[in-house]
TrEMBL record:
One of its GO terms (molecular function) is protein-tyrosine sulfotransferase activity. Keywords: Transferase. The keyword Transferase applies. The keyword Transferase applies. SMART domains: TPR (SM00028). PANTHER family: PROTEIN-TYROSINE SULFOTRANSFERASE, PROTEIN-TYROSINE SULFOTRANSFERASE 2. It comes from Sphingobium fontiphilum. The lineage of its organism: Bacteria, Pseudomonadati, Pseudomonadota, Alphaproteobacteria, Sphingomonadales. This is Tetratricopeptide (TPR) repeat protein.
Length: 522
């Protein structure tokens, strides 16, 4: 116990050499003691040596599973994208009744990363009960409550965070998007005060996004755009984004499939028809369609899976550190479609309950992978959402996406989004030319105007019988972890149609440019 205590104290102080020495002393004193291997593994984690840490934590678990050890093993397995093993380890840890708050929070984070937000609520609740003043634990619980429709609980937890930290940008932004703001109930004065107080640039950034969202809700388009422009300009500068990065990806996809030879364009995988891919530009109705489909008795929502991008990346065999780049795309042309299918389905299986015959994969950026999907899963169904180009540009510009995402770096500049939309439009035309009718291109505006007619068209394309529940998608109780969470818990409506017009002057350069590219914008 003496050496274990020394190792833990050294880890807490960041003294890795002392931690390693003490952990080795634990192992030397008792090779069967799992704690020595666990502490040695945690020292490797702190040194960013995940590959070395994994077998050490596995050795600890093999010597007698403990909740703390399993939870940390699950966290590392998520990092190396071994989702199935991570899920097993996290659930084993939970079954062992974890005694400490950090272990509970870690389990919750793993389950959330796996998309099982409902299951994450219980460990997050335990973590907050044990350490109510831990802001990170409470934020995680608040987010889980928001994703699972526990809106009042989420709001209460965010308000508790703001009482202790008035400039917490994450809490301010989460509260802003939790529901639609009104003249009688909004946070604009508090947000303006918080923006003036914020010393942390990341907090200020998120407060600006929160202000932009609430001001738009209140009809103050000019002030909303002013905050967005400042926030987005900063984000683009931080990322160092240049549209040529995405243009090169589109060029590579077109080179591979449009000029890669007829053999590449034939579906050669097996006949698995379980997946339904819902793709498109983000913020164009993909979450709405996913909710409609997953309300069907034979369909469950698996979430925004990285399964196809990762399958393609691994089988392409490229060494770059990003999931998609021109080199990976070109190398993927020689990958075995059956191997892509197997890798995709194996990874997707960890995000499914297995209670239904079909499942949706709602990663919007899978429109980049339609060629791979058709080759590897020729019986899978694909639905691409299409929305008015100007509403698409506005909805992308106003939302704060995951800052480290490989897919949405274009979204911080109006003209970058317009250029990206044009390439998206061109790519979808290519897929339709190569595989006519293979992808259902579904109009968001058409769905809003004719819910039942377009829902019938959607279900028919997906090979699904009619189910009245699809018209009552807003009653679907499954978790939603996208900015559309509040909207899809309301009946279908036209509130978002034509919203770009409130910002017509600011968006005019993008509209004129799209017109010059022969893209209809009205």
């Amino acid at each position: 116990m003496k050496y274990e205590a020394q190792a833990r104290a050294a880890l807490k102080q960041g003294d890795l050499n002392s931690a390693i020495a003490a952990a080795r002393a634990v192992i030397a004193a008792d090779p069967a003691n799992p704690d020595g291997y666990f502490l040695l593994g945690m020292a490797a984690v702190e040194a960013d040596q995940v590959a070395q840490a994994l077998p050490l934590l596995q050795n600890a678990v093999d010597r007698g599973p403990k909740a703390e050890h399993l939870a940390q093993l699950a966290r590392l397995l998520i990092l190396v994208r071994r989702d199935g093993e991570a899920a097993d380890a996290a659930r084993q840890a939970m079954a062992l009744a974890p005694p400490d708050a950090l272990t509970c929070d870690t389990i919750g984070c793993v389950l959330a990363r796996l998309g099982d937000h409902e299951a994450s609520v219980a460990p997050f609740l335990q973590a907050v009960a044990a350490e109510p003043d831990n802001r990170e634990f409470r934020y995680n619980l608040a987010a889980a409550c928001g994703f699972t429709g526990r809106t009042a609980d989420a709001r209460a937890h965010y308000e508790t965070l703001l009482k202790g930290e008035p400039t917490n940008g994450r809490a301010h932004y989460a509260l802003a998007i939790l529901s639609r703001q009104t003249a009688a109930s909004n946070h604009v004065p508090r947000l303006e005060k918080a923006l003036g107080m914020a010393s942390n640039p990341d907090d200020a950034l998120r407060i600006r996004y929160a202000l932009a969202k609430e001001l738009e809700d209140l009809g103050d388009a000019a002030a909303s755009f002013t905050h967005l422009a400042a926030a987005n300009a900063r984000q683009k500068q931080i990322l160092g984004y240049d549209f040529r990065q995405d243009a090169a990806i589109f060029d590579a996809i077109e080179a591979l499939f449009d000029r890669g030879g007829a053999g590449l364009n034939r579906g050669t995988g097996d006949a698995d028809g379980r997946p339904i891919f819902v793709v498109g530009m983000p913020r164009t109705g993909t979450t709405l369609v996913d909710r409609i489909l997953s309300s069907h008795r034979d369909v469950e929502a698996a979430g925004e899976l990285q399964a196809m991008p990762i399958a393609v990346k691994r089988l392409a065999g490229t060494r770059s550190r990003v999931v998609i780049d021109p080199e990976t795309i070109m190398a993927s042309g020689s990958a075995d479609p059956a191997a892509i299918e197997a890798a995709y389905l194996e990874r997707a299986s960890h995000h499914r309950s297995g209670r239904t015959a079909r499942f949706t994969d709602k990663l919007p950026a899978n429109f980049l992978y339609i060629g791979h999907i058709v080759r590897a899963l020729p019986n899978a169904r694909i639905v691409c959402l299409r929305r008015n180009p100007m509403d698409t540009i506005w909805s992308n510009y106003k939302n704060l996406f995951a800052s480290q995402s490989a897919y949405y770096a274009y979204s911080y500049d109006v003209m970058d989004i317009a250029r990206y939309y044009a390439r998206f439009d061109r790519l979808m035309a290519m897929w339709d030319r190569l595989w006519p009718g293979r992808v259902l291109q579904l109009s968001y505006e058409g769905l809003v105007a004719d819910q039942e007619g377009q829902t019938r068209r959607l279900l028919d394309h997906c090979g699904l019988d009619w189910d009245d529940a699809c018209l009552s998608f807003h009653r679907n109780e499954a978790a939603v972890a996208t900015p559309s969470a509040a909207q899809v818990r309301r009946p279908i409506n036209a509130d978002a149609v034509g919203r770009w017009k409130a910002h017509a002057d600011a968006l005019e350069p993008a509209r004129l440019w799209l017109q010059s590219q022969d893209i209809a914008v009205d």
